[in-house]
Amino acid sequence: MTDGREIQLASRPTGWPTPETFSLVEVRVPDPGPGQVLVRNVLMSVDPYMRGRMNDVKSYVPPFQVGAPLDGGAIGEVVTSRADGLRPGDMVLHGLGWRDYAVLDAASARRVDPDLAPLSTYLGVLGMTGLTAYAGLLDVAAFRPGETVFVSAAAGAVGNLVGQIAKLKGAARVVGSAGSAAKVRRLEEVGFDAAFDYHDGAVAGSLRAAAPDGIDVYFDNVGGDHLEAALGVLRTHGRVAVCGMISQYNSTEPPAAPRNLALLIGKRLTVRGFLVSDHGHLRDQFVGEMAGWLREGRIRYDETVVDGLENAPEAFLGLLRGENLGKMLVRLG
To answer: For 204-255, where are the E strands, in sequence order?
Structure first.
């Protein structure tokens, strides 16, 4: 048995989670059984979708349970192995974050090579985050060279990559929204043609000024007024890839927008929600292209790193408040 700590869901939040939503608990971690490994986590991811799992509702993933640990993407070092193909010292990607140690089936762990890329990239630009951006833009939204793309929450981990991939694939213009002047400047540094702070005025007006000729694709991470604004400027046969609607995750009231869904008819728009798990067939293609762009310095990525498992709840709350630039990670140790 190994002594460790884990973050448990202490209570289900109504509206915004608080520090009291979480509890840090000391636990005894069992030895691995046949076909299993004991992993010491070194990095973990916090992601917006985790907010939905705090609600006791049926969804595409089971809800977190009160009094049980949360989970999510993590990188860890194999400490003990009772499985073929994995040995102590191997670094693996798996889904049992929010804890110091994890016992997992070897089949649910994927070995990663820290000599090929920084470990953090396997949780971000080379991992689920990058594949979400790649599949959402190219497959779900069916982006074509010469088109204009709008990305909301564009300074976040996914949105930042969507804009850069669009430019690499031949976009005529890429526009992003973000939550501060510093984030707007960062979007311009990584190649966005225009960006605006959504706090500076009505999103609809800011978007029309940034894309006066309209847009062809909207990559939606926000919903609400951003979706309403995008519908207003989408050209005929425009497409919307709905990745997330973070503006509604903590709301206790129905959203006030969008109020212009009738535009879907006359403009013949396509609005499609998606889950990255449905696009695993693109993983090899994605990794090949993204690894090449990274080697060539054609993709830049940002990370916000918080130290300590005990600070993981605050990192998650900071993510919901938009305090991160790029991928939000927690470094354990």
So the answer is: 215-220, 234-242
